[in-house]
Amino acid sequence: MGQKIIRFSDLTGKHAENEADLVRIVVREHPDLADGPVEIEALADELTAVEEHALDLVTIELYHPDADEPETVVLEAEVFDRLASAVPMAEVLRGAKRVTRTLPAQGAAPAAAKERPNYASPEHAGKPHKGRTTDAEKQVVRQHLDEINERLAAAGVRTIDLGNAEHVSRYGLEELAQERGVTLA
To answer: Which one of 62, 167, 172, 174 has the lowest number of neighbouring Cβ atoms within 10 Å?
Structure first.
């Protein structure tokens, strides 16, 4: 007895008559993506408009003096270009210092292979990190702010300050700041 594999588009559920019509899609970043990249398939004709809707994006890293890790921000190129007011952004970039990439030490695990901390867990919540702060992490921070600040202080890491508007916004601490009578700086 033989077996027949029937393939479908993950996007529309349409049957793929010919396997060669399927396009492999790797989703690396998405607001609903929690545990790293995923792979889906779609029919090629379902993707014809993708390139028409592609955005010109800029990825930047912000190295704040009070954070251990850089914050990665993705924004439209047009928005980023408007930040340069003295001279055009193209000129700013041409005159900018080149960043040299350092190669990982031999034998070190590649970044993708390293285990990422779960920032929604009590032992990691509130630590400075790049990327977005999940609702789960915000909830843990709101419920255990004092304990988290004790842990952060003991580790020599910046604590979460209810007087810091960025911290309050990042972790959704507006009500707690108001309850404790803290004025935002």
So the answer is: 62
CA triple 128-130-133, angle to 5 deg: 75
* Tens-digit pLDDT profile for residues 142-181: 999 999 899 888 888 899 999 988 898 999 999 988 998 8
> What predicted TM-score, i.e. pTM, was given to this entire model?
0.42
HEC sequence for 2-41: CCCCCCECCCCCCECCCHHHEEEEEECCCCCCCCCCEEEE
Cα–Cα distance measured from residue 159 to residue 150, given in angstroms and rounded to the nearest whole number:
8
Please check whether residue 5 is in contact with residue 24, taking contact to mean a CB–CB distance below 8 angstroms: no
Question: Taking a C-beta distance cutoff of 8 angstroms, is the pair 167, 142 a contact?
Answer: no
What residues form DSSP beta bridges with 23? Answer: 42
- Tell which residue, 134, 154, 145, 148, has the closest CA to residue 176: 145
Q: How far apart are CA 62 and CA 72, in angstroms?
A: 6
> Three-state SS for 67?
coil
Give the residue ranges of DSSP H helices in 9-134: 77-81, 89-94
Contact 22, 42 (CB under 8 A): yes
Residues, the chain: 185
Beta bridge partner(s), residue 58: 75
Gap between the terminal Cα atoms of the chain: 73
Confirm if 119 and 69 have CB atoms less than 8 A apart.
no
